[in-house]
Amino acid sequence: MLDPRLLDTFRGRIANPLYWRRTYRILRGYNRYDLATPDGAGALVDEMSGALGVCLTPAQRAGAINWLVAQRIDPQNRWHQMRMWSVVNGV
Fold this sequence. Notes:
By secondary structure, the chain is mainly α. It has six helices and no strands. Helix content is 74%, strand content 0%.
């Protein structure tokens, strides 16, 4: 389960243009095959949390990884990008 406070923290950071650019660059470096496995999703979670300066507990990290794998997203797919930005922006 994804911690709602964690998602709010990420939303706040990504709303900052400085972090948005970093986030975009990081996401463009991954594909659906990377995010289909816990190892690949874990790498993304670790990279994003480091770039955004968000400290994660092991439970939050595991929840974020499981949530990300379950979403079955492809960061290279335009429709998936729009769908995930809707999640991030709370729409």
